[in-house]
Amino acid sequence: MTERESAVAGGDFGALDADLAAAVEAGVIDEAQAAGVAALARARQARRDVEPFAFFRGLNDLFVALGVALFLAATVALAFPFPATGVVMLLLFIALAEIITARRRMIAPSLVLAVAVPVTAVLSYAGFVTDPGGLGPGILDALHALAMVGIGVVAALGFYLRYRLPFALFVVGIAVYTALVVAWSVIQSDGLQTGILTLRDVRVRLALDAAWIGIGCGVAGFVTAMAFDARDPLRVTRLAHCGFWLHVLSATALVNGPVFLLRAGDAFPVVEMLAVVLLAALVALIVDRRAFVMAGVATQGAILFALLDAGAESGRGALALGLLGGGVVVLGLSWRALRRGLFRILPSGSWRAGLPPVAA
Question: In 3D, which of 224, 213, 281 has the Cα closest to residue 253?
Answer without folding.
Answer: 213
